Amino acid sequence: MTDLQSSYAVSMPPAVLRVVENRLLSWLPPGRVRVSANAPGLKRGLRAAGVEVVESGESLACVLVVEDGREDAEAAVLSQIVQAAGDHLCLVITGHKLDQSRRVFWERAMQRAEWRKHPRTEAVAPYGELDRVAGVLVLAFEPVRAAALERYPLEVLESERDLHTDMTREAGRRSDAHMARYAQASQFIRDGDRVIDVACGLGYGTAQLARNSRASSLIGLDASEYAVDYANTNFSDVASIALNFRVGDAQNLGDMADGSADFAVSVETLEHLPQPELLLAELGRVLVSGGLLYASVPNDWSDETGEDPNPFHFHVYDWQRLVDQFRCSGFVIEKAWLQDAGGGQKRHLSTRSMLEFDPQSGPMTDGEWLLVLARRSEQDSTNVEDPLRIAKEQLASGSRSEAILLLDSLTQDRSHAHPLLPCIAHATLAVIHARAGEATRAADAWLQCAERGRPMLEERGLRSAASALIALSYDAMQDESRPLADLLANHHAAARMLALDVPGSVSDELSDRAVVYGLSAESGGVNLSHEQIRQTMEAKSWLDAKYKEHVMKITEMELYVTELEHARHWLDGQYHSLTDQVRQLRLAGNA
């Protein structure tokens, strides 16, 4: 294989060259590296640092240096990629007029060429510096495997992106933000840790954890069979250790033994769950004493009604709610950050940043997301799920009377950490009595469930879960002859909260996140049908189009801001030059 040729030489100022060299040294894997011929200074610097830079032959990594703005720049890169052997490719883009729109341009060009963002992208492009362009962009990529491309080309991903997104094959700020979280989480994984990634989605983040740490094992869990299949196809063999992706319920990690994990990651998950306390309780069980949890939630994405307008979010989180929920579940938050990306529904014009703050005092400013690193308490604590689990185990073993006594006591519990517990206990009792043919007792329990749930409708963050339980209760009371299996299947989000093994499930994987329960004046409860979900998704597509239209306008405004900044610097220079001339004239006059 010949040297990577270029028809022009690229010159980088010494300061820029040093930055590029340092970032490449932290990113390059051990082994032979090829560097394009148009950057002799970069070659010398890497060789001086001990990198084995070769002119031809096989290599593990390749560095291409490109001058942005040339008409042939993209074509030159794509033609050289064909020659670039190895699984690691770094683009060094230079130019005097670089801005963040050019980063997105090059990311999309590479993704169209069947490459994806490298799992160690943070090494060459630190998240907090992405909006500080100073004459150079550094981007890292790896090829998408042929088997993955055959089953999941870009057009398939684009059709699924409302529900599933592989951020390594997505360009822009939101992709950067998601990948930055996993890169940060990997910093706290200790050598030999057993790691689980709950609600791992398409698995790109789990692969990042593997490639940026020395974990001994990694398990990725997600409720979607599509997501797990994609993860296994794309990422199961990308690291030195095997990545095990499997279908699993975030609120019931029953197939995982107590104390079987040392480190857990669950980003952008809690707000999607009808009962997020169940996930935290399960993680408290699965993690060893002193185990670590890295998690993130949207920071108060509420509108004027106090609710999150995202139809897939059941809860609105702020700092105090997150702290209280973690504390009640036996976790102590040790580190915390505010993250901004910009370009979203909140803090749209913000720059990309990670701001660490003291968990004891809380955040001093606003941000799009809250990120935390928490430690499982060294002492075992009774959490919200324990009494329900005990009741469930008693029912499974045939101890019906003991389970009913326990649930009756829970209906009177007004001091428990989870305020919905009495409501859940009433609903569980109603199902138990209905199964036994005790219609009067079942009706009374349903009524108690609805009445205990109503005050929760006034509690911010509990409305979705409470209305789901109330909707289940009203439907049960209105049609007592309706089969229980059918009733629970149609109210799956509420049924999953109960201390029962619910027969059957909603096959449509949209159900848990897209089915939103609420109250109506007529019947007391409604749930979205599949047709309503489809209409909602069409409305979202229209909103997405309007959003992109406004983003383009904002991008254009940002370009004007850049031009104004250049003009300001020019005027500053002229002012200082004229000031200096006036000073010299005065000195000459005095002489």
Compose a concise summary of this entry.
The protein is an alpha/beta fold and 591 residues long.
Shape: elongated
Please write the CATH class name of the largest domain: Alpha Beta
The main sheet comes to: 8 strands, mixed
Q: What is the number of helices?
A: 21
Question: In percent, how much strand structure appears in the residues?
Answer: 15-25%
CATH second-level architecture of the largest domain: 3-Layer(aba) Sandwich
Strand neighbour order, sheet with most strands = 9-8-7-10-11-14-12-13
Rg (CA only): 28 Å
State the separation between the terminal residues, measured CA to CA.
Answer: 71 Å
Keywords:
eight-stranded mixed β-sheet; alpha/beta; 4 domains; six-stranded mixed β-sheet; about 600 residues
Describe, in plain words, how this protein is organized in 3D.
Helix 8 crosses helix 9 and helix 16 (about 440-455) packs antiparallel against helix 17. The chain has helices at about 15-25, 40-50, 75-80, 100-110, 120-125, 145-150, 155-160, 175-185, 205-210, 225-235, 275-285, 320-330, 385-395, 400-410, 420-435, 440-455, 465-480, 485-490, 490-495, 510-515, 530-590; strands at about 30-35, 50-55, 60-65, 90-95, 115, 135-145, 195-200, 215-220, 245, 260-265, 285-300, 330-340, 355, 370-375. Helix 10 links the parallel strand 8 (about 215-220) and strand 9 (about 245). With about 600 residues, it is α/β, with parallel strands linked by helices. It has an eight-stranded mixed sheet with strand order 9-8-7-10-11-14-12-13, sandwiched between helices. Helices cover about 45% and strands about 15% of the residues. It has four domains: about 15-145, Vaccinia Virus protein VP39 (Rossmann fold); about 175-375, Rossmann fold (3-Layer(aba) Sandwich); about 385-530, no CATH class; about 540-590. The N and C termini lie far apart (about 70 Å).
